[in-house]
């Protein structure tokens, strides 16, 4: 795959509703953030499209619920095979529309196939439990069981930063649990999701079980509609709060933002920590909810660590996303890069020092390392979602643990240390969705329960855990 590809004709995206492909009356352009050319034309779904998609999903509930677990598992394995076969095509589309480095896009599609296989395995492991009714006089002589059943219709809204993998983290568990789905991807990354859905449908999905809508106009009604039983959203904290306020009694899973705290203690493997912090601050151009943003370093190793991080940052290759030698491409668009550039500029004007950084070129920003930051700077206390990090020294780590626990954020944090006592203290005292020991805040494996607390969200992603959320308990008592 050669760099550039700016002369390729735009592709045509269609909605999939009720087992049929459908065009829209309106379309929107999807542009390459690196080259500026039009990559695709995206349908803008209408209220009628939304109504038809929800009716189709509602109508498919019975077929999905009646499908035995082994058949759902086989269907998802076939879908995984199709995604793997089309990996290069899906990855290329992803890089063209998002500016993500092609090597990362290929890895994401490979992981996506793996997510579907994990979902297939979990489709035959959906379990309830026996309730010991004879624990009370009233229950004695009775048999009690808690059983799990699909919720019905899942509405899934996905972001641009990992468009295919995060779509799979919603679609896969929904189908594995016996639900139907209405998926609305980000309008900034619709082409790769469209190609992913084409691959999934080759697996023989029941008519109406998977439906796609595009554009943001239909999102408010999608989450509020009474035909939807469960809402799964990955995106920003402000939008997540709006969804939580509007869905009423529906259950939701919200995977929102964070500020990427990672600790490097004086007994850490300094070289490994420096490499990981630098690369996980700028990987995906910093556009990850758990991207390394605030690195807290023990004063005793501050100078050595800072030098090592700067050396590693200098080795990272930024450039054309379609070049396999490129490690970091662009942000999603120039407006996003301008926003991050503004955060960095305001920090420098307030006294911060830039050890690494440089001028913006369109949607591309170089990796930025800041020191001498203050806790009230937006570059510290707000989610950057860009390729920038700060290094902050400490003497006593406990106060920082408390500050993170008291902050609005609680997605994941990382800590590098060889002290078991300190690692356990971090796990016990930091109020967050996950603590990664000898890894950064950005570490994630697809089978693990991933998600946050406080403003960082609710619910957990990961096939087993999403399936748990996308099923409901029903008590069965036999007298």
UniProtKB/TrEMBL annotation:
Entry's Pfam families?
Answer: Aldedh (PF00171)
- Which keywords fit this entry according to its UniProt record? Oxidoreductase
Q: Which Gene3D superfamilies match?
A: Aldehyde Dehydrogenase, Chain A, domain 1, Aldehyde Dehydrogenase, Chain A, domain 2
Q: Which residues form the Aldehyde dehydrogenase domain?
A: 21-473
Q: Does the keyword Oxidoreductase apply?
A: yes
Q: Which InterPro entries match?
A: Ald_DH/histidinol_DH, Ald_DH_C, Ald_DH_N, Aldehyde_DH_dom, ALDH-related_metabolic_enz
The family classification in the record reads: Belongs to the aldehyde dehydrogenase family.
In Swiss-Prot or TrEMBL terms, this protein is called: Acyl-CoA reductase-like NAD-dependent aldehyde dehydrogenase
Q: Which organism is it from?
A: Ottowia thiooxydans
Lineage summary = Bacteria, Pseudomonadati, Pseudomonadota, Betaproteobacteria, Burkholderiales
């Amino acid at each position: 795959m050669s760099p550039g590809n700016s002369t390729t004709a735009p592709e045509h995206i269609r909605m999939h509703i009720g087992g049929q492909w459908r065009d829209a009356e309106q379309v929107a352009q999807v542009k390459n953030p690196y080259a500026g050319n039009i990559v695709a034309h995206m349908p803008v779904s209408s209220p009628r499209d939304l109504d038809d998609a929800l009716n189709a999903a509602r109508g498919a509930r019975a077929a999905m619920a009646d499908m035995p677990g082994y058949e759902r598992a086989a269907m998802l394995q076939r879908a995984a095979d199709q995604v793997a076969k089309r990996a290069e095509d899906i990855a290329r589309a992803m890089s063209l529309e998002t500016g993500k480095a092609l090597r990362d896009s290929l890895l994401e599609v490979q992981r996506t196939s793996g997510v579907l296989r994990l979902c297939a395995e979990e489709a035959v492991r959906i379990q309830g439990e026996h309730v010991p009714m004879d624990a009370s006089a009233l229950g004695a002589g009775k048999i009690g069981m808690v059983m799990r059943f699909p919720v019905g219709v899942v509405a899934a809204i996905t972001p641009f930063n990992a468009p295919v993998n995060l779509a799979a983290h919603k679609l896969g568990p929904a189908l594995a649990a016996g639900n139907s789905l209405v998926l609305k991807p980000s309008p900034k990354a619709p082409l790769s999701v469209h190609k992913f859905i084409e691959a999934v449908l080759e697996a023989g999905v029941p008519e109406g079980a998977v439906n796609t809508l595009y554009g943001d106009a239909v999102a408010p009604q999608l989450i509020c509609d009474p035909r939807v039983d469960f809402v799964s959203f990955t995106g920003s904290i402000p939008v997540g709060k709006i969804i939580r306020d509007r869905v009423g009694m529906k259950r939701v899973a919200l995977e929102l933002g964070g500020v990427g705290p990672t600790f490097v203690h004086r007994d850490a493997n300094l070289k490994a920590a420096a490499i990981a912090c630098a690369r996980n601050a700028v990987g995906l151009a910093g556009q990850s909810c758990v991207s390394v943003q605030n690195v807290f370093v023990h004063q005793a190793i501050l100078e050595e660590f800072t030098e090592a991080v700067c050396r590693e940052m200098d080795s990272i290759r930024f450039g054309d996303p379609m070049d396999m030698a490129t490690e970091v491409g662009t942000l999603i668009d120039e407006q996003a890069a301008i926003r991050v550039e503004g955060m960095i500029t305001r920090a420098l004007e307030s006294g911060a020092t830039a050890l690494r950084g440089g001028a913006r070129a369109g949607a591309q920003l170089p990796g930025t390392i800041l020191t001498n930051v203050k806790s009230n700077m937006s570059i510290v206390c707000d989610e950057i979602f860009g390729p920038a990090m700060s290094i902050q020294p400490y003497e006593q780590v406990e106060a920082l643990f408390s500050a993170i626990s008291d902050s609005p954020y609680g997605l994941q944090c990382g800590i590098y240390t060889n002290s078991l006592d300190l690692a356990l203290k971090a796990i016990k005292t930091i109020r967050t969705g996950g603590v990664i020991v000898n890894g950064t805040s950005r570490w994630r494996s697809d089978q693990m329960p991933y998600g946050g607390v406080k403003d960082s969200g609710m619910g957990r992603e990961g096939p087993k855990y999403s399936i748990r959320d996308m099923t409901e308990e029903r008590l069965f008592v036999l007298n």
